[in-house]
Amino acid sequence: MKKTVTLTFSDGSPSIELPIEQGTYGKPVIDIRTLGAHGYFTHDPGFTATSSCTSDITYIDGDEGLLYYRGYPIEQLAYQSDYMEVSYLLLHGELPTAVQKTAFEESIRHHSLLHDQMENVFRGFRRSAHPMAVMIGVTGAMSAFYHEGNDLFDPKHREIVAHRLIAKVPTVATWAYKFNEGQPFVYPQNHLSYAENFLHMMFSTPCEPYVPNPVLARALDRIFLLHADHEQNASASTVRLAGSSGANPYACVAAGMASLWGPLHGGANEAVLKMLDDMGDVSRIPEYIKRAKDKSDGFRLMGFGHRVYKNMDPRARIIRETCYEVLDELDLRDDPQFKMAMELERIALEDDYFISRKLYPNVDFYSGIIFRAMGIPPSMFTVMFALARTSGWVAQWNEMLSDPAHKIGRPRQLYTGPERREYVPMDQRGA
Ligand code: CMC
């Protein structure tokens, strides 16, 4: 028998029975869709207890520290798969066969070049523009290049959108960097893997040959894979909400990127490095820890804590290992900033304030250190996250539009403003 919950009211109003739904895993949810008809809405700022959709894509158990993409544990994917395969998995729901994987990779390669006219879009920005601003602007501008012929209810059309976005974001990301640096744009090379191609477009110049380092390419691929999706976070929910009206998908992904940019979401990895720079020396760690605990200060230790994980983020465990691999490869284990980060990690993990609140280092704590070691500047960190998360965003967007029951997203509110009042003409409003 289906479980239900009965809502009773202290003023004796008739009670309301609501069904309880149970997913494959996770907490049961109370289906409140009929509440409006009874004259009530629910109030949940920040959606801390609200499920906004059904989804088959990603599952997180924050208490246990588990993350599954389409049912596969993140650890198995990180060590045995790669970003292209995971992008296919997120989009299609199943691991590809060898033939399907080759065809997918070929399609991604085929779409990696930008329309020639898009160069002018980059050139419209000021040179010093933050690369994330350029990334959002250029991705949004893709809607001007690919608007006609998007039948959002045709799965084939949605697939082309998804492939185009996954294929083009590394080109957009690296060109945002090149434009900042005043270096010529580098075109994608189809014989390279996705991560190698990123390194090539980021670091090569026409002046000398460039061979991507395989250890760095592998590390980058793993970082992309670990960031590919994370269920209904702020940016994925933004993409879904924007897309729920049937808006152009490139514009929707640009909206997701804008949401990701904030320091409490994808901007945290840049904020971690900024914090380490400000700190400057191991001797100042206690001062920063003290500030993080002081509620009147407003300062938070960047790279610590997570809305969902109240245990070590499984991605953080893996990326920590990758961090050591990259630092070893580049002979940077003795780098003072890295040593400072490791000391901060050690002290915070032993501190009662962080232990009692279950604040562990998150994935952003380590990704910034890796990126900097690779020579990627902090202003590009959120861009890296956006690039990797694109496969998740398009999978979430595609899933939403594939659902015949999908509706435009339209939250309600608890209005606390003034009661109805009459307009006061200017000459009667006093001095
Ligand atoms: N430093 C110091 N105190 C913290 C921190 C922190 N980084 N994070 C949480 N707290 C405290 C917070 O003050 C609160 O204390 P109290 O109970 O005494 O009032 C308690 O821990 C619970 O915090 P919360 O604000 O209720 O937690 P939240 O779930 O709303 O916030 C968070 C999650 C990620 C926004 C927050 O931990 C934070 O601001 N972290 C720093 C920024 C960061 O690293 N963000 C990256 C998140 S991972 C990337 C992603 O998936 O997007």
UniProtKB/TrEMBL annotation:
<dbReference type="InterPro" id="IPR016143">
    <property type="entry name" value="Citrate_synth-like_sm_a-sub"/>
</dbReference>
<dbReference type="GO" id="GO:0036440">
    <property type="term" value="F:citrate synthase activity"/>
</dbReference>
<keyword id="KW-0816">Tricarboxylic acid cycle</keyword>
<dbReference type="InterPro" id="IPR016142">
    <property type="entry name" value="Citrate_synth-like_lrg_a-sub"/>
</dbReference>
<dbReference type="GO" id="GO:0006099">
    <property type="term" value="P:tricarboxylic acid cycle"/>
</dbReference>
<feature type="active site">
    <location>
        <position position="364"/>
    </location>
</feature>
<keyword id="KW-0808">Transferase</keyword>
<dbReference type="InterPro" id="IPR010953">
    <property type="entry name" value="Citrate_synthase_typ-I"/>
</dbReference>
<dbReference type="InterPro" id="IPR024176">
    <property type="entry name" value="Citrate_synthase_bac-typ"/>
</dbReference>
<dbReference type="InterPro" id="IPR036969">
    <property type="entry name" value="Citrate_synthase_sf"/>
</dbReference>
<keyword id="KW-0012">Acyltransferase</keyword>
<dbReference type="GO" id="GO:0005737">
    <property type="term" value="C:cytoplasm"/>
</dbReference>
<dbReference type="InterPro" id="IPR002020">
    <property type="entry name" value="Citrate_synthase"/>
</dbReference>
<comment type="pathway">
    <text>Carbohydrate metabolism; tricarboxylic acid cycle; isocitrate from oxaloacetate: step 1/2.</text>
</comment>
<dbReference type="InterPro" id="IPR019810">
    <property type="entry name" value="Citrate_synthase_AS"/>
</dbReference>
<comment type="similarity">
    <text>Belongs to the citrate synthase family.</text>
</comment>
<protein>
    <recommendedName>
        <fullName>Citrate synthase</fullName>
    </recommendedName>
</protein>
<dbReference type="Pfam" id="PF00285">
    <property type="entry name" value="Citrate_synt"/>
</dbReference>
<feature type="active site">
    <location>
        <position position="306"/>
    </location>
</feature>
